[in-house]
Structure formats: C-alpha cells, structure tokens
Amino acid sequence: MSQEIDYGNLMHTAMRGLIRTVLQNVADHGLPGNHHFFITFDTRHPDAKLADWLRERYPDEMTVVMQHWFDNLDITADGFAVTLNFGDTPEPLYIPFDAIKTFVDPSVEFGLRFETAEDDDEDTSEEIEAAPEADEAQDEPKKKADAEVVSLDSFRK
C-alpha cells in the first residue's frame, strides 16, 4: 500500500465523473438554456477516434464545440461518442474522458483544466483547476450549425 494519498488522481477521477454526468444529462434531455461546451482533448490518445483528416489537421490536441448542432451523443463509462458538423460534413468522434484537457461552459463561466507534469515543467505532480473563467468575448451568439475548433488561450490564466 502506498504511503500517500494520490489526491491529484482522485480529483481527476472526480472531475471526469462530473463531465460524464453533465454529458449524460445532455444526452437524456438536451442542452438547457444557453449552455454550450468547449472540449479540448488529446488527439494522440490511443482510444480517441476521429477522421484521419481531422487527426492530420490537429495532430496534438483539438477543441470541439457542442452547441447548436450535434447528434448521436452516447456516453460510456470511459468516454463519449458524438457526431459534429465540420464544414457541412458530419463526422463521428469518440473522446475518452482521460483524453480531455479542458472542459469549459462559457455560458456560466465554468471550466476544468487537467494538467500533467508534461504541461508544467516546474511542477511534477498532477493537478486540476476548477474555477470560474475570465470574461470572454460573447458578442452575438453564432447562428450557424457547424462545429468549430477554437483556441482556449483566452480561457487560460
């Protein structure tokens, strides 16, 4: 038995469970109100499934938006499948929960960021941040039905 409690991994497990619960609720009842999600994930994860052209375009990480149009949202114990529209081309994706790097719902200024030692050279332990996000440009909501890949730099501290 280990001499220390691994709080970092316990928090990661709990926060991924929160994401699973939120997505299951959306699968069961749809997106409520103005809620929408920016989900950044590691495209190199061995269990991530996405079209070859998307993997070539985003070889390290990709951010998807679940807002106006998504289909076939299916939640499993280890991840979720969803079909998103990329330039009028529906593409199925499978995103493992442990491939998620950030989960943001800007409608309520909520965000989770999963960090590892690779992300921060100065800190060798894993940590998670769950905090309200900084104000972002939320002019007029977009009315198009395409998924978008966006940069989350504006959400990072």
Give a description of the structure.
- The chain has 2 helices and 8 strands; from the N terminus they run αβαβββββββ.
- It has helices spanning 7-29, 52-57, and strands at residues 37-42, 61-66, 70-75, 79-86, 89-96, 100-105, 110-115, 127-132.
- It is of the alpha+beta class and 157 residues long.
- Strand 3 (70-75) and strand 4 (79-86) form a beta hairpin.
- The strands form 2 sheets. Strands 2-1-6-7-8 form a 5-stranded antiparallel β-sheet, with helices on one face.
- The protein is globular.
- The longest helix is centred in the N-terminal third of the chain and has 23 residues, at 7-29.
- The model is unreliable at 121-148 (pLDDT under 50).
Count every beta strand, where a strand is a DSSP E run of 2 or more residues: 8
Instruction: Choose one word for the global shape.
Output: globular
Q: What is the straight-line distance between the termini?
A: 37 Å
* Major beta sheet summary: 5 strands, antiparallel
Mean pLDDT rating: 79
Proportion of strand residues: 25-35%
Provide keyphrases for this structure.
alpha+beta; 2 helices
Task: Lay out the secondary structure.
Elements: H1 7-29, E1 37-42, H2 52-57, E2 61-66, E3 70-75, E4 79-86, E5 89-96, E6 100-105, E7 110-115, E8 127-132
Antiparallel strand pairs: 1-2, 1-6, 3-4, 4-5, 6-7, 7-8
